[in-house]
Amino acid sequence: MSHKVDPSSSIDRYSINVMPFTNVCRNMNCQGQSLDIVFSRTGHIANLNSMEPCSIYTSTCRHCKCVYGPSSILDSHNNQRIITTQSIQDIDYVYFSGDLVYSRHLLAMFSNSLIHAHTTFQGFAESYISTLVDLDANQTSIYSANTFGKRLGIVWLYYELSRFIFVTSCETSISFPKSFQPEARPIFIEQNLPFIFHIFTVFWSNHRMLNGIKCKEKLCSRVMLIDGHQKCQRIICQFENLINMNHPEMGPVVQGCPYAPNRKKKNEKGNVIRTFTHSDQSVFYCSHHAKYVDMTKNGEQHHTNQYEEANKIDQQTIAELNNEDICNVYRSDIRTDQKNRSFGFLVTFLSCNVVVSFTESIKSEGCRRVTDHLLTMLKSGANLPDVLFYDNACALRLHWNKVLDTKYLAKNEFTNKLYNLLLVLDRFHRKGHTRPMCRKMMNPDDDRYGTKFKDINTSVCEQFFSFLTKFRCSLRGFNYPTSTLFSLLLSHLKNCHTTGIKQKGAFTQVRPLYTRPSAGTI
Asked: Where in this chain does the record put each CxC5 like cysteine cluster associated with KDZ domain (predicted)?
């Protein structure tokens, strides 16, 4: 909200004044208490083609002591910064803290540059500052490109996350950590990733219910397609003794540690303040698991029984499928190089090019990881088609036949639905399949299916991955869990562009059923 303040006022510093988004307290206990508006500090507004000085004002509720800013509410009692639909949707400027205010149009430009030009925060910052200098020869750079880019990244992340949650859920307010410092962000993101993934999956698996979407009615959500993409892989911690028990009916699944290993630390001036010797094995581990390095050096066994069990079933699956009539596209997914890298992303699409879910695949893209991924979607309440295209569908079907009704795929409502999916090979990879089942029952063009799959574009995955490859440098620059959140917001913005959904305003046709996260932060 921007107002012109009386020039004769002693508190008016500049002609542009960035004001609190409301003049009454939103706390129900305060019963519409009027707010006292006061000058906070001077700053600069980053507009599309200029950077102008401004005065920033805040207001405080006398009753609850909450401080209202231009885009958020600061609740010092609970160490929270609250963003509401009112504070973020219909405003001209976005401001959370510091001395830098962003024009909403500038943030919109960055989001579109991200999707269509694959720009990075640093690249956009350098281009923006250079443009200001070119437009005004007398313009002096107030912020370095590095500083502007880092601040833009933080503000954009919270701004787009807020808009995403307001569009895809029933929430009307979000509580972020009071401080936007790097130490607080990963904790907040990781605590709320299950909720964020849930509303993403439910919303986009039901997007055909929305009015005015660009999807072709005959193709929208008819089938789903799944594939892995490894070009956005990251270097991760080498600690292996990690499994997940997300789905008890599957037993333990090898997961691995998603965090980045220790690296050289630099101070604000860019000087290295901590280095690692060539023999220092902790360089391969995250800060949490570095303490296990000594046990590894002494040759002590640090694998749990659950890890051994999960690894054993993976090896058995590989051995059972590794025979003479194996299809040419099969891969064992066992990596042997020294650097421990993630396997990129495992992504599920709908036939209308919409991303409906993804998992950062830490250890592999094997059959059990695919099963874990699909069960997670089903249990999240996703409305999925009953046909699945996958380039390794034959191996997945043989694996399910082998383990169904065992402790590695016990029967229940979700595994039954999973097992009853029609598995089909995509047309591009089908050429490399040699089994009779691949040539017949898994061939989308087999006579038994008639024209059912005639208009289905089975190259959806490859086309999206071609788009995603352009972000590999950006994605490698983020560590978990920020990397996962950035990928989710990127997929959401891409989906909005694909379907023609506009984020401005609330969409009430899809109302996900969900439980608030246990952390209670959203």
From this structure: 16-131
